[in-house]
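If you are new to this repository, start here. Below is one unmodified record pulled from the training split, so you can see the exact layout before writing a loader.
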Amino acid sequence: MKIKDGFTLRCVAGKHIAVPVGERSRELHGMICLNESGAFLFEKAQVQTDACKLCDALCDEYDVSRDEAMQSVVEFLDYLRSEGILEDE
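And here is the target side for that same chain:
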């Protein structure tokens, strides 16, 4: 899985925002506001990955248990899927 092409991650006034560009802006009208860990995961998911790799990356970057990290990753990926941002292959 990975983030669909046509999204860019920006930091504006200290806020992390995923913005659709080009053709994607026709599908998603708006922006996705992310917290720091959400932006971290979004960046990691811009290349082909899986939930276990994202969980490992989250554990390496933040002081969080594997169970908490996996729960966060699953919720984050579910949200991206519901918004049509995630491409499952």
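Two things worth knowing about this chain: The chain has one domain: 2-84. Strands lie at 2-3, 7-12, 15-20, 32-34, 86-87.
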